[in-house]
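Support request from a user on the community tier.

User writes: "When I paste my structure tokens into the form, the page sometimes reloads and wipes my input. The last time it worked, I copied everything first. Here is what I submitted, just in case something in the input itself triggers the reload:"
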């Protein structure tokens, strides 16, 4: 093989690897999606209820 053939083979291999990496990144970004059930986020009520503490105190001796 002469130097020109080696150059074209190396360029072809390099471009194949770059295309392969771009395709894998594209597929990975498309694959990770949020499920439709998780799109709506519900808020949690963090109010303090003193009756709960009384119930816990009664259960523990």
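"...and here is what came back when it finally went through:"
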């Amino acid at each position: 093989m002469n130097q020109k053939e080696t150059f074209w083979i190396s360029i072809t291999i390099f471009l194949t690897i770059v295309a392969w990496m771009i395709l894998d990144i594209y597929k990975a970004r498309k694959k990770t999606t949020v499920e439709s059930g998780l799109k709506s986020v519900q808020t949690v009520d963090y109010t303090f209820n003193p009756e709960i503490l009384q119930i816990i105190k009664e259960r523990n001796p």
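Agent notes: The reload is a front-end session timeout and is unrelated to the input. The mean pLDDT is 83. Residues 3-59 form one domain. Escalated to web team.
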